[in-house]
Protein: SGNH hydrolase-type esterase domain-containing protein
Organism: Dreissena polymorpha
Amino acid sequence: MRGMSWAQFRHAVESNVLLNKAPDILFIHLGGNDLANTSVINLKNTIKRELNYIRAALPDSVLAWINILPRLTWNGAGVSDQVIDTKRKRINRWCRLRAKKFTKHEIVSVPIDSATPGFFRSDGVHLSDVGLELYLDCIRDVILKFC
């Protein structure tokens, strides 16, 4: 869901699982929209709570953690883009360690960086067609690995 934050995560999962069977793979690409307005400690606590929920609610699903991607600009941050990018790296590192606690897990590192031209649209936030294609290739590789 575009624009989603961790506060909306559980509701989104519950809504989909109630109407369907548990997913074989649960891809989580979330947190970028939280970086600008949430402290690292609060974000870690929220993510920990939600990942514990997922582990209990969907024990047979593979958790595929997709690292929070860099951006050319972090809209609404009120602080420098460099500060937000440092938070992003800290959260990614911490989430990779949390994801490894799942019996079945995969860490997805999409090789997109903010220094390579062409990965982002002109807004500096959303992926261009090239960036999106690379992102989807990484997801496809995980699906092929587990299905």
Summary: DSSP finds four helices and three strands in the chain. The first strand starts at residue 25 and ends at 28.
